[in-house]
């Protein structure tokens, strides 16, 4: 995927939408990518308007998941908005992140032992 993005938009732009090979958090087993079964806007920001994404945005925290790369948080996360990319963090953390409208990075900083 990364190489495809590099070929289409160049290295700098590819880094904002795709992890370098072996650097995706998918290898950890904590995230999942969701779809709507019909392929509408798959892996595109417009997926946020699809029923599966609106449900996930409203309810994923109840099951311990957060939208890993939320809209407008690119400076914090380092990645463009990905409404299909969910990350498991546990129900308590997910609920706090959802209710406060913060990123996983902000949550981690607030809860660091320092």
TrEMBL record:
Look up keyword Plastid and say if it applies: no
* Keywords, alphabetical: Carboxypeptidase, Hydrolase, Protease
For this chain, one GO molecular function annotation is: carboxypeptidase activity
Q: Which Pfam families match?
A: VanY
Indicate whether Hydrolase appears among the record's keywords: yes
> What sequence ranges are listed for the domain D-alanyl-D-alanine carboxypeptidase-like core?
9-90
Which InterPro entries does the entry mention?
DD-CPase-like, VanY-like_core_dom, VanY/YodJ_core_dom, Zn_M74/Hedgehog-like
Q: What is this protein called?
A: D-alanyl-D-alanine carboxypeptidase family protein
């Amino acid at each position: 995927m990364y190489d495809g993005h590099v070929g289409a938009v160049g290295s700098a732009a590819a880094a904002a939408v795709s992890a370098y090979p072996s650097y995706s958090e998918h290898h950890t087993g904590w995230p999942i990518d969701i779809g709507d079964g019909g392929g509408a806007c798959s892996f595109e920001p417009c997926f946020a308007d699809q029923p599966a994404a609106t449900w996930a945005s409203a309810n994923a925290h109840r099951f311990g998941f957060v939208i890993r790369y939320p809209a407008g948080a690119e400076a914090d996360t380092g990645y463009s908005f990905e409404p299909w990319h969910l990350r498991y963090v546990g129900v308590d953390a997910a609920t706090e992140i959802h209710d406060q409208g913060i990123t996983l990075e902000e949550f981690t900083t607030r809860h660091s032992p320092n």
